[in-house]
Design a protein that fits this description.
The complex is a heterodimer of chains A (445) and B (279). Chain A is an alpha/beta fold and 445 residues long. Chain A is built from 16 helices and ten strands. Chain A has three domains: 155 residues, 2-Layer Sandwich (Beta Polymerase, domain 2), CATH 3.30.460.30; 143 residues, Rossmann fold (3-Layer(aba) Sandwich); 81 residues. Chain B is mostly helical and 279 residues long. Chain B has two domains: 122 residues, Four Helix Bundle (Hemerythrin (Met), subunit A); 132 residues, no CATH class. Chain B contains eight helices and no strands. In chain B, helix 2 runs antiparallel to helix 3 and helix 5 runs antiparallel to helix 6. The radius of gyration of chain B is 19 Å and the shape is globular. The relative contact order of chain B is 0.10. The chains are: A alpha/beta (445), B mainly alpha (279). At the A-B interface, helix 8 and helix 12 of A face helix 5 and helix 6 of B.
């Protein structure tokens, strides 16, 4: 009987957060939930559960995906104690290659709220580990997930989908980096201590700016924030003398009209000997006169300019997403070949690895007396075991190749070979990597 | 240098120029690496070419304007490669590589014209240890000024985009900051100025030894002095009033244009002691 992969789920587009939160699982609950699912729906042979703030998806394998999907939905409702009717409309289903495509797209961050955001890959990796922990992973999910990881990696390397800034404060930081080379010798001044100004200051601190001045209408707030961020509080009515030492000025005061204009900067610029200044105006109405941008080596970005940078990034990411879709389509083809049993390469690789590992374990176990042998004798033992595994491998390979001429037989043979020879799929040789590619600067707002 | 060999070098330089420009238009990581490799290949072949001419004539290969220009193109390519690799500033290739290509192409044309007449032989009076020292310093100084102009062109383009709020394509994530471009521009000007000063001093000493006077106000000397004064003023303006950034970049390009004009004009119009026929 043909095993088919299927997915049922809801995400940020199909359901609002008040629905998603009711179906969400914490990582710690997931292995137990998967075991409960297996008991409730024995027809499901493999299963994994992806639960993030933007999506809850069950990725599973069964011979009749249509029926299995129904029982999965029923299970989710009872397990989370939610009426099916509350989320039935939001549920989407994928089966077969369609499901694989969905999984690849999710992993490559093409289905994310912010396309290209890097967290999802880490979340998918932990989804796989948790399913492995629950022992609900079999050959199909093993292959599908690792394919999804490699698709994600190819997309990240081959496209610019993860580049650019997707929030106002990270756009401000990227701009600062385009103006200044070294940041450790620069000074930031906050005028007004609003939330976004604070966030931007934190970002700038994180990339190496040392010196921070905070001027706020309420001096106490400035002092509190200065203590928290490691800066110096300045009374708002005496900030002017500091201007000449400020490289990045962030305004977020609520004012009726701009507090600083070209006249105020004429002398400052000369005193600074034309060193560049970056003015970030987060205020509405604006804090700085827009004519300041025309002054020499002064760069003024207001909230709309920063917003435009963010929008531009999103547009560029969407263009890059088209390239990524092509990569997904290509990888899907190779996955389909494997599913049809025509592509034996991954199976052969797994078997080879498994057998080599058996040999390594034996050699390791006998290391004590092996090391007591003469080097020449030790070499012979190594050679002998190597030749034994090679001969074994050769027989398996030619057997698989002979059966490979007709697709269903080949799939069955490959499956059998897997079952007999690959001892521990879950701890397969495709190492599950950490989430080191997360970008701390990128927050979702 | 045989015509085939010369064409090969020109193709390398031309390809690097095309790839550096294409990189700015298309932004694919591979394009710029191909540009760097093509530039390096051109420079290596070019080195052999220059050495061959030197061995062939038995003198330092700067006998006429064509050879001098070729030498300048080579040193510029070499210094540019060092800068691109050391400072990770492949963007400058977009100006640098076409400049090297044009200079080398012009040198090649001059060379073909020259081949029809008999080749100029360096007169005995100029065959001295001072020749390679004086000429290398001068040409190296000029190469630094080409690089400074390249950096300034990139600076102005970036600054325009930042001012125009069109900055920050995701492709530009790894590009150098304005501050870095400005600093490197200043360093290049400093090096170039130092080399030019030394070239003038060694030239004067050499002239004194050969002709008995330090300075004879012939066109190359006068124009060198003008260039020297202009660059001195450029550096001075930064040190005293702190002119940097946009203004410094724009002035660097203006002075460079004067340099190019005088270099070509003087060599073609007043072939004096320095020029084609060493009168």
């Amino acid at each position: 009987m043909e095993q088919s992969i299927f997915i049922v789920g809801i995400n940020h587009r199909s359901a609002p957060v008040r629905v998603r939160e009711r179906l969400a699982y914490s990582d710690a609950d997931i292995p137990a939930a998967l075991r409960r699912l297996r008991e409730a729906a024995p027809a499901i042979t493999e299963a994994a559960l992806l639960s993030t703030c933007n999506r809850v998806e069950l990725i599973a394998v069964a011979t009749d995906p249509e029926k299995a999907a129904d029982s999965t939905i029923a299970f989710l409702a009872s397990d989370r104690d939610v009426e099916v009717a509350t989320f039935a409309d939001a549920i989407y289903r994928h089966a077969g290659l369609d499901a694989a495509r969905h999984l690849f797209r999710v992993g490559a961050s093409l289905d994310s709220m912010v396309v290209g955001e890097p967290q999802i890959l880490g979340q998918l990796k932990s989804t796989y580990s948790l399913a492995a922990e629950a022992a609900t992973v079999g050959p199909v999910l093993h292959r599908a997930f690792h394919k999804a990881f490699s698709v994600a990696k190819r997309v990240r390397k081959g496209t610019l989908i993860g580049h650019g800034s997707v929030s106002v404060s990270s756009a401000a930081v990227k701009l600062a980096r385009q103006i200044f080379d070294t940041l450790s010798d620069k000074t930031v001044m906050l005028m007004g201590a609003g939330k976004m100004a604070e966030l931007t200051a934190r970002h700038l601190k994180a990339i190496g700016i040392q010196s921070l001045l905070i001027a706020s209408r309420t001096f106490d707030r400035a002092v509190v924030l200065a203590r928290e961020l490691g800066g110096t509080a300045v009374p708002l009515d005496s900030y002017r003398p500091y201007l000449k030492m400020v490289d990045v000025l962030i305004g977020s005061l609520s004012l009726a009209k701009p507090i600083l204009g070209p006249d105020d900067f004429e002398a400052v610029i000369k005193e600074r000997r034309y060193r560049p200044m970056f003015l970030i105006d987060l205020g509405v109405p604006r804090n700085f006169d827009e004519r300041l941008n025309a002054m020499e080596n002064v760069y003024l970005y207001d909230i709309d300019d920063l917003g435009a940078v963010v929008m531009q990034t999103r547009g560029e990411r969407e263009r890059e997403a088209e390239k990524a879709e092509q990569i997904v389509a290509l990888e899907l083809e190779s996955f389909a070949r494997w599913l049809a049993g025509l592509d034996l390469v991954p199976t052969i690789k797994d078997i080879r690895y498994s057998i080599d590992r058996l040999r390594d374990v034996e050699l390791e176990r006998n290391r004590g007396w092996l090391s007591a042998l003469e080097p020449a004798a030790r070499e012979r033992v190594e050679l002998m075991t190597r030749s034994l595994t090679n001969k074994l491998m050769h027989r398996i390979l030619s057997g698989l190749r002979r059966s490979g001429e007709s697709a269903p037989d080949s799939a069955a043979a490959a499956d059998l070979a897997r079952q007999l020879l690959i001892d521990d799929l879950a701890a397969g040789h495709d190492e599950i990597e950490g989430t080191d590619d997360n970008d701390p600067e990128e927050e979702l707002d | 240098m045989s015509p085939v060999f010369q064409t090969l070098i020109l193709v390398c330089y031309g390809l690097s120029a095309i790839f550096f420009v294409a990189d700015r238009l298309r932004h694919e990581a591979r394009l710029v690496s191909i540009g760097v490799i093509a530039l390096a290949a051109g420079a290596i072949l070019h080195a052999f070419g220059i050495a061959a001419i030197g061995i062939d004539s038995g003198a330092f290969p700067v006998a006429d304007f064509g050879e001098t220009l070729s030498f300048l193109a080579w040193l510029t390519a070499l210094a540019g490669l060092v800068m691109i690799v050391r400072s990770r500033m492949a963007v400058v290739g977009v100006f640098l590589a076409p400049a090297v290509t044009v200079a080398f192409a012009a040198a090649s044309i001059l060379r073909f014209q020259q081949l029809e007449q008999s080749r100029i032989v360096l007169p005995e009076t100029l065959r001295s240890v001072w020749l390679p020292i004086h000429v290398t310093l001068a040409i190296l100084g000029y190469a630094m000024f080409v690089l400074a102009a390249s950096v300034s062109v990139v600076y102005l383009a970036y600054e325009r985009r930042l001012k125009g709020k069109r900055a920050l394509g995701p492709i530009e994530d790894g590009t150098p900051s304005l501050e870095k471009l400005d600093r490197i521009n200043y360093q290049l000007l400093g090096w170039g100025f130092a080399m030019l000063s030394l070239a003038i001093i060694t030239g004067a000493i050499w002239a004194d030894a050969t002709w008995g006077h330090f300075w004879s106000w012939e066109p190359v000397e006068s124009w060198s002095l003008v260039i020297w004064i202009l660059y001195a003023a450029l550096i001075e303006s930064r040190l005293t009033v702190g002119w940097r950034g946009r203004r410094a970049a724009a002035l660097t390009i203006v002075v460079f244009t004067v340099l190019v004009g005088s270099f070509i004009g003087v060599n073609l119009m007043y072939p004096g002691k320095h020029g084609g026929n060493f009168g």
